[in-house]
Amino acid sequence: MEKSDPNLAELTDSVIRAGNEWGYQIGRDSAGRLLLTAVGESPVVPPVEFRFTDQELHDYYSRLAAKAGTPNGESTPWKTWMVLMSTHLSEAVYKAGVLNQPCAIVIDRAGFWAEPA
Known about the structure:
Distance between the termini: 34 Å
Radius of gyration: 14 Å
Strand order of the largest sheet: 1-2-3-4-5
Oligomer: single chain
Low-confidence stretches: none
Strand content: 25-35%
Order of helices and strands: HEEEHHEE
Shape: globular
Number of helices: 3
Helix content: 40-55%
């Protein structure tokens, strides 16, 4: 994908795909919200809910995609998104494990992050 403005479904699917690449099982609840249900073979109990609006996800994409072609970015907006978002996702999952309590993954000014639920 090389277009500069992916739709919400593409962004959401990219989060799931990035999680799978890190060995995370990310699914959806009955309302369509993303849930982290396992890390490797270890279930996450309770699952970690992703809490952000559609607009927050789109804005997050825009912030990261703007780094394309810079020393901190890849050659295209989509590649930049995938690399940086994936890294932020991994950091958030790690943080959720360190907190060792019910958490949610949110989008803060730096990207994905875990906070107590």
